Structure prediction request, 117 residues.
Amino acid sequence: MTLAEIVFQKKKLEEKYGVEGKVAGAYVEAGYDVRMDFNTSKGRLSFVAKKGGQLLAVDVVTVSKVLGRDVVEAVAEKAKSINAKPVLILYGAGPRLSDEARAAAKELGVEIKRVRP
Prediction:
């Protein structure tokens, strides 16, 4: 994919999906193929990113509150249902993880990333 195509796709994702599209655009820029609003048997994911043989199940959280263990477990279950690696994106300075949620993420293999606007 050329640079112009990547920039165009990033812009379209952000216009159509907002914050989730902006985060997905970063994955597109990194060379991933992205499918937005992906439904699994366990619930909806923000998007699924695929590159080579690697499949990432990504959930984006934007709410400004402290997140508990249940959010991390939900992402892990959704990812397990499609045999993907779980990734939880905390967008902005608002969402925070409790100590219990951090321990659950480490235990379940959920990757936590923070994306700043």
